[in-house]
Structures are given as C-alpha cells and as structure tokens.
Specification:
The chain is α/β, with parallel strands linked by helices and 416 residues long. It is built from 8 helices and 9 strands. Strands 1, 2, 3, 4, 5, 6, 7, 8 and 9 form a 9-stranded mixed sheet that branches. Helix 3 links the parallel strand 1 and strand 2. The longest helix has 39 residues.
C-alpha cells in the first residue's frame, strides 16, 4: 500500500507541474504577441486574412499615394497619443522625395508661364491663364510659316514653346510675339528629342492639351478654339487636323480631310481596311507631323518615347494604347478644322550663320550635301523603327503581368 500511495502522490505532483509550466508558457507567448503588436503598430500587422502584412505598391507614378508615414521616423511609442490620426497620415498622397516636407509646401507640378523679375507676387500662385500648349520644332528658313501658326494660337489661352534645331534664336526677335514664347535650342535635334527632355508630364500637367507640331504646316483654315471644342465634344484623346488633299503631301490616306464629316476615325481600302478593322493604320491612328494629345494621353505617350530613338518612327502605330480607352473611338482626325502639310525637308542642314561663299558651285555642292544628309536621316529613321518594334515585342514578352487590351481573342466555343 505504501508503494501505491507514493506512486499516486508522485503522479499528482507531476501533473500539477506540467499544467503550471504550460500556463506560464502560454502567458509568455500571449504577452510577447501583444507587446510586439503594440510596438509595431496595427498598420504593420493588421488582423486580416492572408499573411497579414501590409504590402505597398512599389512602382507608381510620382504623385500616387505610395509614401506612408511609419514609426521608423524617430517616433517613439510613447510619443503617439490616442487621438493622433495615424490612419489619415498613412493615406496621404506624397510625391516621391517629398516625405520630409509638410504637405502644404509641396509643389508637385509646374508650367511654362514666365514671371516678372520685380513687382508684386500674384496672390493666386496656382492661377491658370492658359489651358493648352503649342510646342513647335522651328528653323529660321520657315519663319513666315511659323509666324502664321503663332498668330493663330497667340492670345487664345495657349502657351507657346519653340524647339530651335538650327542655332538661330536671336533672328526671331523681329516678331513682336517673340518674347512671349519659350525658346529652347539644340542644333539638329528633332521635336521628339526636345519633347522627351522638356515636356515631362509633370511640367505640362496644367495644360489640357498638348499640340506637338512640325513647322511646315499651313493654317489658313484652322482655328484652335474650334478645334478644341470639337475634340472635347467627340471625346478624342489623341487627334490631328485633317490634311487638305489638294495642297498637302499625303503619306497615309486616313489623314486626308473628309468633306462630309466633322471627324473621322477610320478609312476604307478594299482588301485591307473595312468596318471590321480594329488596328492602325486603318483605325485609331494619327500621323506624327501634327498630333494633339490630352493631358492623360500625353503622360502615357511620353513614357513610350525612347531616349535614343529621336525620330520616333514606329511610335505612331502604338499611340492607341495611350488613348485612355477604345482607340477606335478616342483617336481621330478632325475634318472641320484642317491644315496643309507642305512636307518640307528641314532637319540635317548645317547652320548657315557664318556662310559667306554664295557662288553657284558652292550652292550646288551644298545641295548635294543636303540630299546626302536627308538620305542618311531617312535610313536612320527606318533603323529606329526596326529597333522600336523589337523593343516593343521584347517588352510584351517579358512583362507577364501586362495584358494587351486590343489583342484579338478567339471566340468562345459554344458547341458544347
């Protein structure tokens, strides 16, 4: 009996010890969990389904809501009061790089408005006196054409910017509007080179529409205000004025002005383009000599312009992806307001500021040299188009998350 009692007492003692140990262990685990949760904050380990980590989007636009206030910014646990709006702070939209600044002092965008060196500061720092931007690639040889274009746009709520490609800037001062224009100069660079470097979407964010035009355009039958009214009513995000068939150099039939319509979005060619066509150049396409972009479309198109492909050949076939929706509806040619495309060869000529030899033989030599340069430029343009197509194909293949919104998909099998 004594041995039986000893065993019983020993068993009871061990049971109590195990229960006590288990209780202590569970208490420590629970205490550790609540301490960690309190120190890290509820926004780091929210009690939600899944893994529970609050993973932020990593690749967003500079003005998206990606930067969040965290407890790692030298804010101690005891410095946070119960009434601190932590969640509201976490939801603030901050441009990347502005996290150290109070929100009200951040100026996330800019414009091309010029200001006086002296005098009173305007009360409304964000006042908008212009609604759209005209950016022109210009050379002094086409100054009369450019003058006519500027007179059409000046004073009609447009900012105007010149991209000088021929090293002639001072000569434009003969025009009274010269000082009202922004002048940027770089010898023998294309408008796409300039646009990539000087028309960043955040710089032109205040403008509703961006006109990115060549200089060799006749505008006798074009009125900017009417044009803007039409594209707004038609919902066109990317557009161009129609081309006068009788006077213009025509490269693509879709750009020709229709005489019986206000706007057209497609053209017809037997065996190639019909009502069932859904892709460029039959529909959803504009040419690159006089495109007009909405603010949203330009933000997209700017990212597609390649730094080193300065002629932008091939870009026109993909602009529909920036149309903010169905390219068959949101890309079009305006017939009611039309222009003349003269097709003048401009790029490739050297600056003639210091020329003094005007002999006939010298002129012939210069003509031959210019033709050779234009041929070389055309060859470079074709090569750029090949490279752009290759880059596009590779980007589509590499980006497993991207879905082509215009890809033709097979009709569902309804036989089963």
């Amino acid at each position: 009996m004594k041995s039986y009692n000893s065993v019983s007492l020993l068993t009871d003692s061990n049971s109590r010890t195990c229960i006590f140990t288990l209780f202590i262990t569970m208490s420590l685990i629970c205490g550790a969990y609540f301490l960690v949760s309190a120190s890290l904050g509820t926004d780091s380990f929210p009690l939600k389904s899944g893994l529970g980590f609050n993973i932020k989007q990593q690749f967003t636009e500079p003005v998206k809501c990606e930067v969040q206030l965290t407890k790692k910014m030298d804010i101690g646990l005891h410095d946070i009061r119960e009434n601190t709006p932590v969640d509201k702070c976490n939801d603030k939209c901050r441009p990347v790089g502005s996290e150290a600044l109070p929100k009200g002092i951040v100026s996330a965008t800019s414009n091309l408005k010029m200001h006086h060196l002296s005098g009173p500061i305007p009360e409304d720092n964000n006042s908008k006196h212009t609604t759209s931007l005209l950016a022109l690639a210009v050379g002094i040889n086409q100054k009369q054409l450019v003058n006519e274009i500027v007179k059409k746009f000046m004073g009609k709520e447009f900012a105007i910017m010149f991209f000088h490609y021929d090293d002639h800037v001072d000569e434009w001062h003969e025009f009274e509007w010269c000082d009202s224009v922004i002048h940027v100069s770089a010898v023998n660079q294309t408008k796409w080179w300039f646009a990539k470097r000087f028309l960043h979407p955040d710089i032109v964010a205040e403008y509703e529409y961006i006109f990115l035009w060549d200089e060799d355009l006749g505008v006798d039958n074009f009125h900017p205000e009417r044009y803007l009214s039409i594209i707004k009513e038609e919902g066109l995000e990317i557009s161009q004025p129609g081309l006068d068939r009788s006077s213009s150099e025509i490269h693509h039939q879709i750009t020709v002005r229709g005489r019986r319509s206000r706007v057209h979005r497609r053209y017809y060619k037997p065996g190639k383009c019909d009502n069932n066509s859904t892709s460029p150049p039959c529909v959803g396409w504009v040419e690159m000599m006089a495109p007009v972009f909405s603010r949203a479309a330009w933000r997209c198109a700017w990212y597609m312009i390649q730094n080193d492909l300065i002629h932008a050949w091939g870009l026109d076939m993909q602009l529909g992806y920036c149309a903010q929706g169905d390219r068959t509806l949101k890309v079009g040619v305006v017939d009611h307001e039309y222009i003349v495309h003269l097709g003048l060869p401009t790029l490739g000529g050297a600056s003639d500021k210091n020329k003094t030899d005007n002999t006939q033989s010298s002129n012939a030599k210069n003509s031959s040299t210019s033709s050779s340069k234009r041929y070389a430029i055309r060859q470079r343009s074709y090569e750029e188009m090949r490279v752009f197509k290759s880059r596009w194909s590779k980007a589509v293949m590499d980006d497993k998350c991207w879905i082509d919104p215009f890809e033709k998909r097979a009709a569902p099998d309804r036989t089963n």
